[in-house]
Amino acid sequence: MSIMANQHQAINLSQGFPEFDTPAFLKDKINQAINEGKNQYSPSNGLPELLTQIAEMVHRQYQTDLAVEQKLDGLNNITITSGATEALWVAIQTLVRQNDEVIIFDPAYDSYEPAIELAGGKCRHIALDAPSYTINWALVEQTINAKTRAIIINSPHNPTGSILSQSDLSTLQALVEKYNLYVISDEVYEHMTFDGLRHESVLRYPELFKRAFVVSSFGKTFHCTGWKMGYCAAPNKLTSEFRKIHQYVTFSTFTPAQIAIAQMLKEQSSHVTSLASFYQQKRDVLINALKYSRFTILPSKGTYFLLLDYSAISELNDREFCHWLTKEVGVAAIPLSPFYQAEQRLNYHQNNKVIRLCFAKNDDTLFQAAEILCQL
């Protein structure tokens, strides 16, 4: 869709990347590291100073009520990866064996299923329905069988903007303990929750974390998606197995960026805590600008995505509508159907007319796009 947007000079609200720049402090620090010659391999697991700063951030964000002895140990529980997608891949390869089954929730990030299948496993898809996209945990339990190895969750959720509640995490923990399962928790939008809602990280639940990989992204947090910097937090035994695979995937990740991010976390931690209000303002700008359009606006509780129902505008399916919107109208959006498994897409096309917009853009871009969309 970004290629199509460029070809047709459309305003690009499709692919999920920020239009605004990386913080100046972070750019200064990465340039400083490069100019000081810190350009060689880092330790495979990550620079110790970065691992320590991540653990401190996690403790501030999620573990303030835990005993000191339970505090996450950066050197033993965190691994730096070349993006969150690598962390997801390695976590899946660590867990999934031939003929294992993994439960995922559609619409889902499109890297999950290929990684599971290449590990010899099989996905069991559970569809989430508009407008709330909440998980039916009774259906999850009915789906669990002797082959079920793991459940992948994503909160805040791409592409829907929904988030999991404390009740969701408690129910998940009960199922994991009851059926001896593992969890991969994709939390790359963890710092972007709105309207005072709390992100319920797996890191808040010590018993659940014992059987979990938690994946995060610096690219999302610091507006530097092209740096491909992520990390995975896991208990000691799972981290040990994770690292055995990670060393043969990328070995180590871009050293100057690790140095810069460690300093950012240490000296500019307010960036992380202010991210929710920053993106809530962006969300509200777009929602208010679309208030008099013919779109139905679905709730966005987190991420930097907003869903629109276009039922009142067109009978086209979501792929066709997004192509038309880009080529003829001049605004690029993402269809939701590709986030569902192939078998579900026909049913999805018949019953849903929903597209995704990215609001990680400058206000002028959002106003310009909304003005065009309001004319439909």
Automatic annotation (TrEMBL):
Short name of any one Pfam family annotated for the protein: Aminotran_1_2
Question: Matching Gene3D superfamilies, A to Z?
Answer: Aspartate Aminotransferase, domain 1, Type I PLP-dependent aspartate aminotransferase-like (Major domain)
Q: Which GO terms describe its molecular function?
A: transaminase activity
Q: Does the keyword DNA damage apply?
A: no
Q: Which cofactor does it need?
A: pyridoxal 5'-phosphate
Q: Which domain of life is it from?
A: Bacteria
Q: Which UniProt keywords apply?
A: Aminotransferase, Pyridoxal phosphate, Transferase
Report domain Aminotransferase class I/classII large positions: 10-370
Protein biosynthesis among keywords: no
Protein name, UniProt field: Methionine aminotransferase
What organism does the record attribute this protein to? Thalassotalea fonticola
What lineage is on file? Answer: Bacteria, Pseudomonadati, Pseudomonadota, Gammaproteobacteria, Alteromonadales
